[in-house]
Write a structure and sequence with these properties.
The chain has 13 helices and 2 strands. By secondary structure, the protein is mainly alpha-helical. The protein has 2 domains: 302 residues, no CATH class; 59 residues, no CATH class. Strands 1-2 form a two-stranded antiparallel ribbon. Helix 1 runs parallel beside helix 4.
């Protein structure tokens, strides 16, 4: 009878494994297709520079659309004697700051994609089959986040250009200010999409690693082998160090360029003698908001993954406490040896539990030296593992500085104070007599 039950259990397990493999075959094309669409989107923006032809097309398109086209339009528009509605120094500063951010994003991200490829760059070359649904969900969230953050900035940009077009008076027909509106909006959209997409790629890489840290927390509930925990944690820390190494120059350039752009805007506004309004200085406000959105996306992703990595120590502390403070010594010994060496002692205690307490106490065996030694060894292994986690918290680092919540608060309030100053000086409407 027992042999037959074992055979039925083996058949059920084999069926479950076959179903799991079938599900993996169904999910793999979904993830492959999602990665192919993401790679195609990055190719369209010029990030995929795997060949000399793509490299040339990418940078020529960027120089033409992101730099030369807006500079030409601004210089041509300033000859129309409309200084009240457009200041040449303001417009050129906005174009240069936005183009610098887009160029740094294009340079850093294209280098990593050319070197590693989309799968290895996202650490999905050796992905877990049971996490594919979470991967797809995170990629979809990144796409929605791009639309959610970009559309308000685009609406502000279009509103500012339409408002300026209504106030500008030309000797020519209406098509000239309308052509200027379309040209400047198209160029601004191109460089802004490049910058925000690079920030969201970093955000996506960090979010994909958060999935693995959540799965690591579940591993503490499934496994009891300390060596498995240490090996998995070392692998996760290795991935975080790779992310920090690949994005450290990009993050530094973003922080430096955005902060310097805000200070340059501040100096330009304070030195300008005439009135600064939303019409002639509104691009400062719109571009500052878009730039700070990119900084927030990067800081939020880095701080989130650092916080999740540092939180593993607290989960391990709880796991260690639950393993050490069981209901009785017998449960602790059973936990310390997963092969069941102490099952006999536990069965003996169970068999005498039906007798009276005084009689049962005579049959409770004292733990042997081997049992105590095994339990103490297990305790010390867990304690060593906990000390390892406390001394190796992990996280995103920039040349040794961990990007955690304290750093994100400092940078965020510096950028926010600069942006609020710019908004306070530029969101002023005026009317003409």
């Amino acid at each position: 009878m027992s042999v037959r039950l074992q055979e039925e259990e083996e058949i059920v397990k084999s069926d479950e494994i076959q179903i799991l493999y079938n599900n993996e075959d169904e999910l793999c094309p979904d993830l492959d297709g999602c990665l192919e669409r993401l790679d195609l989107y990055l190719l369209f923006l010029g990030f995929n520079q795997s060949s000399y032809c793509r490299f040339g097309i990418s940078w020529v398109s960027f120089l033409m659309i992101g730099v030369l086209l807006p500079v030409f339009v601004v210089l041509s528009n300033c000859r129309l004697k409309c200084d009240l509605y457009q200041v040449e120094a303001f417009e050129l500063l906005v174009v240069s700051s936005h183009a610098s951010l887009a160029a740094s994003a294009l340079l850093c991200l294209s280098h990593n994609l050319r070197k590693y490829g989309i799968r290895k760059f996202l650490f999905l070359d050796h992905y877990n089959a049971h996490l594919q649904t979470h991967y797809l969900h995170k990629i979809s969230e990144s796409k929605r986040a791009l639309l959610l953050w970009f559309l308000p900035c685009l609406i502000l940009k279009v509103g500012r250009e339409v408002t300026r077009m209504m106030y500008m008076q030309h000797d020519h027909s209406w098509w000239q200010p309308f052509a200027i509106l379309l040209t400047l909006t198209f160029s601004w959209t191109y460089v802004t999409i490049i910058f925000l997409s690079s920030c969201l790629v970093f955000h996506l890489v960090c979010n994909l690693q958060i999935i693995h840290f959540d799965d690591y927390a579940n591993l503490l509930e499934r496994e009891t082998d300390v060596l498995v925990f240490i090996q998995e944690h070392a692998r996760l820390r290795h991935h975080l160090s790779k992310i920090s190494h690949r994005f450290r120059i990009f993050l530094l350039l973003v922080f430096i360029l955005v902060t310097s752009s805000q200070f340059a805007t501040l100096f330009q506004i304070t030195e300008f003698r005439d009135k600064v309004t939303f019409i002639n200085g509104g691009d400062f406000a719109v571009s500052s908001i878009a730039q700070v959105v990119g900084v927030i996306l990067c800081l939020n992703a880095a701080a989130k993954i650092s916080h999740r990595a540092q939180g593993i120590a607290s989960l391990a502390s709880r796991w260690h406490a639950l393993a050490s403070c069981g209901p009785d010594d017998t449960s602790q010994m059973r936990f310390s040896n997963r092969n069941g060496n102490f099952e006999a002692a536990n069965n003996l205690l169970t068999s005498v539990s039906s007798e009276s307490d005084m009689e049962a106490m005579n049959y409770i065996p004292l733990p042997t030296n081997a049992q105590l030694t095994s339990y103490l060894a297990s305790y010390h292994r867990r304690q060593a593992f906990l000390m390892y986690l406390q001394n190796n918290p992990g996280g995103i680092t920039l040349y040794g500085w961990t990007v955690d919540r304290s750093l994100i608060n400092t940078i965020f309030f510096i950028e926010l104070s600069l942006v609020l100053f710019v908004l306070g000086r530029t969101t002023v409407f005026t009317t003409t007599n």
